[in-house]
Design a protein that fits this description.
The strands form 3 sheets. Strands 1, 2, 3, 4, 5, 6 and 7 form a 7-stranded mixed beta sheet that branches. Strands 11, 12, 13, 14, 15 and 16 form a 6-stranded mixed beta sheet that branches. The chain is an alpha+beta fold. The protein has 3 domains: about 150 residues, no CATH class; about 30 residues, no CATH class; about 130 residues, Alpha-Beta Complex (Nucleoside Triphosphate Pyrophosphohydrolase).
Amino acid sequence: MRNAEQVTFGGSGLDRAAHIRGDEAGMTAALAHDKAACVLMWRGKVLMAEGALAMVPMSHPVLGQGLSRQIDAPVFLGVEASGAPNFACDISGWTPQGLDLSELGQFRDTSFQEHPDFPPGYGFAEIRAVMADLSPHDAELAATAKAIVNWHGSHGFCAACGQPSKITQAGWQRTCPACNTSHFPRTDPVVIMLITHGNSVLMGRNENWPEGMFSLLAGFVEPGETIEAAVRREVVEESGVRVGPVSYLASQPWPFPASLMIGCRGEATSTEITVDPTELQEALWVTREDMMDVFAGSHPKIRPARKGAIAHFLLHNWLADTLD
């Protein structure tokens, strides 16, 4: 696809400087750098300021409060072109007083939690709620921070012996002191498919989604399976539609919690739909003309795909005829 890396979280050229992750002296110097700053996380959310990602100086006193038990040290994200190091820090141990937390963890969490140590306008926001507003640079930083913090939060114990593990390699590894096993961040491959037949595209919806929300079909790649095979298997399992040729279009890191969305195009060789109710509530073919109404917000049944998601990106390029 032309413009394939313009998808949200698609990458802004962040220098991850992996070669210094194991350099203890280098990390000490990076943390002490006068321009060092961090993406601040709280319960999976990122600190925002007036619609932009807020970068917090490493000297800020908030970093000494409420650190999460399993992420008790900054995680090194990379280096700016200016030489300034960036980190991710998690303060999920902080508990807001008197704030409504009922939206936390909901499919559409638009709540905004303000911390008393920051000026008005600063607050923690769900990345999916703000991702379309982030610059490519900020989106990559936020996605990387969320993915690595998520991983640490669920991998505090060694999978080999069950003992507590500790952060090593500046946050990009966990090592078990008991058996010396090393553990590394995981990313789960997920195929998301633009399946077309003539002038129509295949869409589906999960019963737990908000009313009117439809998306492209998607599913995890299984062990021992190619991307192409996963596309064909997932589509026929969920909708009964069979797929012929498959080609790659674009990818998107999707840290909710740890996926890499692999956008593919497939040509349907059948059109009859038989929905698997354990996978989908409904699936349907949508013509190009109807999809134009969807994007315009005037379709009577289907709401437009969420901006920033790869489904929106693929459908937009399909409508604009900018798919290779």
